[in-house]
Design goal:
By secondary structure, this protein is an alpha/beta fold. Helices cover 39% and strands 20% of the residues. The chain contains 7 helices and 9 strands. Helix 1 links the parallel strand 1 and strand 2.
Amino acid sequence: MKTALLIGSTGLIGSHLLQILLESENYNNVVTFVRSDSGIKHPKLRQHIVDFDQPKSYQDLIKGDDFYCTIGTTIKTAGNKEAFRKVDYQYPKQFASTAVANGVKQFLLISSLGADENSSNFYLKTKGEIQSFLKNSDFESVSIVQPSLLLGDRKEFRFGEQIGAVLMKTFSFLLLGSLKKYKPIQGNTVAKALFALAQKNKKGFAIYESDALQQLGS
């Protein structure tokens, strides 16, 4: 039996993933790191309320088998580029660094289609930089998932995403062949795909785009 570790457990994908992990017979412990009490209770759940900016205070708690990183924000929600980069690059990097030092074998990360460390787009550049960091890490297995536009109920309202989701769903039948990866995808489907990838435990570094996630999570 294994221990799953998770940051981002209150987000769209993370909340679905947490339920999957708690219901799975593959894990006897599920450890989450949160800023405030989620209110979720379960015999398998160990919730640690931590200050993400003080990694030394919780580094000894990062012990297990599979680390799922579903944390993420937008520049608008974060307030500025620096705050966005802290959530989408600094936090995943510091958790991953400690996890690999503590013997965690597998790391799975939510990224974005088009992520590229050489991109002129700050959002995609940041996503690409954390991917590059993980590619050069010492984990036995790293899985990067790149979903397209996410569908599902968020705790925070994102007007642009709502408009985009309506338009993409309307015209998604036009996205065929190599364009299939741009079809919107349900957050719950991405969570199921993450879980499936972790159970495969494929050695090395791999990136899975949205069309592959749709198959894995169906």
